[in-house]
Amino acid sequence: MTFLIGKNMTGGYGGSNILNSCTIGAEKGEITVVVGPNGAGKSTAMKAMFGMLQLSEGEVLMEGTEISKLKPQERVKKGMSFVPQNNNVFTSMTVEENLWMGGYLMSTTVEAKAATEKIFDKYPRLAE
CA-CA distance, 29 to 8, in Å (whole number)? Predict the structure, then answer.
């Protein structure tokens, strides 16, 4: 069983489909790459997998469970993440703010602070 799969995904923007019965899968513990020219639908497919694009057809499954109706934040709780290719995503944030984003799902602020301090202890230059 494929760990994460978007099956027969169809969807797009403003009534125009960019994806037409697109299927993409990724296996657990492996690196998966989607390659294609500009405008081929790579980013649209990733947005569909993450729930940032409403599908008109198809489904997204994680470990065999359909997650198509889950909001992006619910998919994050299941272990998914999405980082757009833009160069300006985290550049305006401090190192500490970036680390806090990585600890988004930690159950307490105390736990997140402890994890941040552990990273600063291991990489003191980051604390500067």
Answer: 23
